Amino acid sequence: MKALPIIYGFVTLAALGAAVTIPYAMHERGSAAVPTWQNMVNPGSLSAKHAFLGNNCEACHTPHQGVTADRCTACHANAELLLSRQSTAFHATIGDCRGCHTEHQGAAHRAVVMDHDVLIRRKLRELPASARSVIAALPVEHERIRPEETALDCAACHANQDPHRTLFGASCAKCHATRAWDIPEFRHPSPLSTECAQCHQAPPSHYMEHFRMVSMPVAGVEHADVSQCFLCHKTNAWNDIKGVGWYKHH
Ligand code: HEC
Ligand code: HEC
Ligand code: HEC
Ligand code: HEC
Ligand code: HEC
Ligand code: HEC
Ligand code: HEC
User: Is 173:152 a contact under the CB 8 Å cutoff?
Assistant: First the structure.
């Protein structure tokens, strides 16, 4: 008759004991100290490049805190390429690796997903509540972009990829959203247009001797101002020169 309450008593005690001992043991000696614990909470296998870490959960997880950047940077401090590229230079100061480097989704899943929302959330958190509501109420220039996206300084990370060579200014969000660069409703003007220079800035070489010495002879055009792109260029590719064909450098 009294067996049930006694069993319950033991179960409760055991659970309480585990609740204290497991975190303590993990804190003191790492998760290897409680082998079965790993399998219980492991949410899935690691990405291929991290598979070698196997059950070494502490490589990335700090007990009681979860994934912390210091674990990641212990192995990834010398990421020169990453820090020297404009769009990824933010790695030097980001201080939190979660969101874009997801894990436990199996070996086929590459642990890199650019998520601008991670940046937006961080940016908004840094601002006072008053500024956040101003941003939320910002008028947006086009329907593809959300007001919060305009809180990001796109050009700080993407100016080097600007195909408009600054002609459209530094406020990329006026026309672009973060999901993709293409703008589905954009239709390129006809190849017969003479307005090319309104939207296209010529490369620096066109404003140097190179233009008279190379560009004009190659195009077979004797009189031209740089702004008259349409005399020499077509709209499919800049190196497909009008009446000449594909121009190969060197
Ligand atoms: C014990 C060392 C170690 C730790 C800790 C570690 N990594 Fe790695 N990581 C590696 C190695 C080694 C590679 C493979 C490098 C290569 O192939 O050039 C790698 C690859 C990567 C890649 C490239 C993935 C791909 O598929 O291209 C990313 C992103 C990355 N790690 C981010 C992280 C983040 C974020 C953390 C922390 C949550 C972390 N790493 C923790 C050693 C580590
Ligand atoms: C806002 C998103 C974001 C955050 C946060 C972030 N990363 Fe990245 N990371 C990226 C993107 C995007 C790339 C891939 C760039 C590319 O296309 O090569 C990358 C690339 C990397 C790579 C190189 C991967 C390779 O292919 O060799 C490493 C290593 C890395 N990140 C580590 C970290 C670490 C460590 C942290 C935390 C300190 C962190 N990242 C935080 C977005 C992020
Ligand atoms: C290569 C680094 C790495 C290793 C090694 C690793 N994890 Fe994780 N783990 C992560 C990242 C990153 C996340 C955040 C989830 C995400 O964004 O996909 C995470 C999330 C988790 C979560 C969800 C709760 C949380 O903190 O977000 C659990 C539980 C977890 N890991 C358990 C484990 C266990 C158990 C092991 C060892 C068997 C382990 N992890 C090894 C990187 C790692
Ligand atoms: C802190 C740096 C940072 C900021 C700020 C930023 N981006 Fe990005 N963005 C990245 C990185 C990193 C990638 C991944 C590709 C790469 O390495 O260039 C990326 C990728 C993209 C892509 C390509 C998406 C795809 O999958 O093809 C678009 C579009 C984009 N960003 C637009 C924007 C716009 C618009 C803004 C401003 C509203 C912005 N970004 C702000 C860092 C940033
Ligand atoms: C006045 C509007 C406008 C502004 C401002 C603008 N763009 Fe664009 N951008 C466009 C249009 C239109 C396209 C063509 C889209 C298409 O073909 O679907 C484009 C295309 C692009 C492409 C794709 C190029 C290709 O060939 O695939 C990139 C990358 C890009 N823009 C980056 C930027 C960056 C970076 C900035 C800010 C420094 C910026 N843009 C500012 C209108 C703009
Ligand atoms: C109303 C603005 C506008 C006008 C006018 C215009 N373009 Fe464009 N053009 C764009 C945008 C935006 C893109 C996509 C972004 C980029 O690649 O520069 C583009 C792309 C191109 C590309 C493709 C570049 C590549 O590598 O994929 C070529 C070539 C081009 N334009 C040539 C021309 C020529 C030649 C003229 C004049 C006959 C012209 N454009 C007139 C806006 C314009
Ligand atoms: C007199 C003819 C002529 C005119 C006018 C002209 N170009 Fe060119 N352009 C060329 C030729 C030829 C080449 C390929 C050889 C070279 O680099 O000079 C070229 C190359 C280019 C390239 C490719 C450069 C590279 O590094 O791959 C771009 C982009 C370009 N022109 C844009 C423009 C734009 C934009 C205008 C107008 C604002 C313009 N061009 C006006 C003849 C011309």
Answer: yes
